[in-house]
Amino acid sequence: MAHGIESIDFNGLPALRLQAGGASAIVSLFGGQVLSWTPRGGKEWLYLSETAKFDRSTPIRGGVPVCFPQFADLGKLPKHGFVRTVDWMLADRRVDKDFALIQLRLEDSAETRALWNHPFGIELTISIEDNRLDLEFEVDNRGTDVLSFTGALHTYLRVREAEEARLEGLYGFTYRDSANGNAIKRETGDALMVDAEVDRVYRQVNRPLLLRDGSRTLGINTEGFPDVVVWNPWETRCAALADMPDNGFRRMLCVEAAAADTPITVAAGEQWWGRQTLIAL
Fold first, then answer.
1. How far apart are CA 123 and CA 103, in angstroms?
2. pLDDT of amino acid 24
3. 154 catalytic, yes or no?
4. 1, pLDDT greater than 70
5. CA separation for the pair 53, 276 (Å, rounded)
6. Active-site residue among 123, 129, 136, 154?
7. pLDDT digits (tens, 9 = 90+) for 69-118
């Protein structure tokens, strides 16, 4: 496979294709969103809905949407914030035969201040190499007041069959069960397996996770983000999503680096960063 970074048209949207070390990725400038990642010698690890919309009328269903400055409906802003439906700027690119890296940037504007009246700058650095995808998200508080936000890297992982996938590493952690009245529970299983709707915010997760999908295994590491969100809409909720096929829930599991339970606060003039790393094992 060749190595490089090229501008492409992806379903009518401006995007970038990264290739290096036998790996590849596609990133949409609309939403600053990774849409595809294939490690060296492997298969696609990100789920992108077959019925996703690319007409800018709605966020793209799949890949790794960036949720900021609000996670879900935990506030007065549009669900998951507003950065999923605006164009990001390409600020930097670097490439050699072993790795490819891009840095996307978004700053406050009259449109964002009408929704959320705070000066800010955010950057998403995306890099691939061999069997690894790194996403680093940085928030710069450019105002004179403390900045408070929730958010996530809303990662849709592609699985062969959701009911057979095993997510390991969450044993013992407390979670808020959004699918069951926001009840607070403790994970007691060695592995999380999906056989119904799952919508959980695991708190203060401080160890790596493993997703076992048949013969494939994916390591999931986070830094900076305090929480991990696990989501699968299952049959009924999936059928209600216009931009997802009725059986789409069988092919995906969201495992998200998140700050969803307690807001992140950033002092005036300071920065915060969080990272999610996916490693195909």
1. 7
2. 98
3. yes
4. no
5. 26
6. 154
7. 999 998 999 999 999 999 999 999 999 999 999 999 999 999 999 999 99
Q: Of all residues in the chain, what percent carry a pLDDT higher than 70?
A: 100
Contact partners, residue 97, CB within 8 Å, separation at least 6: 3, 20, 21
Residue ranges making up the domain that contains 264: 4-280
Biggest distance spanned by C-alpha atoms of the chain = 51
- 144 and 129 Cβ atoms separated by less than 8 Å: no
Contact present, 125 and 101 (Cβ < 8 Å): yes
Position 2 scores a pLDDT of 81
The CATH number that applies at residue 104 is 2.70.98.10
> Is cis: bond before 65, omega within 30 of 0?
no
Average pLDDT over residues 228-244: 97
- Using DSSP's 3-state secondary structure scheme, residue 250 falls into helix
Question: What is the number of structural domains in the chain?
Answer: 1
Q: Among this protein's residues, is 50 annotated catalytic?
A: no
Whether 43 shows a pLDDT value over 90: the answer reads: yes
Catalytic residue among 123, 136, 187, 256, which?
256
Position 56 scores a pLDDT of: 97
CB-CB contact of 143 with 268 (8 Å):
yes
Q: Render the burial of 195-208: b for 16+ CB within 10 Å, e for the rest.
A: eebbbbbbbebeee
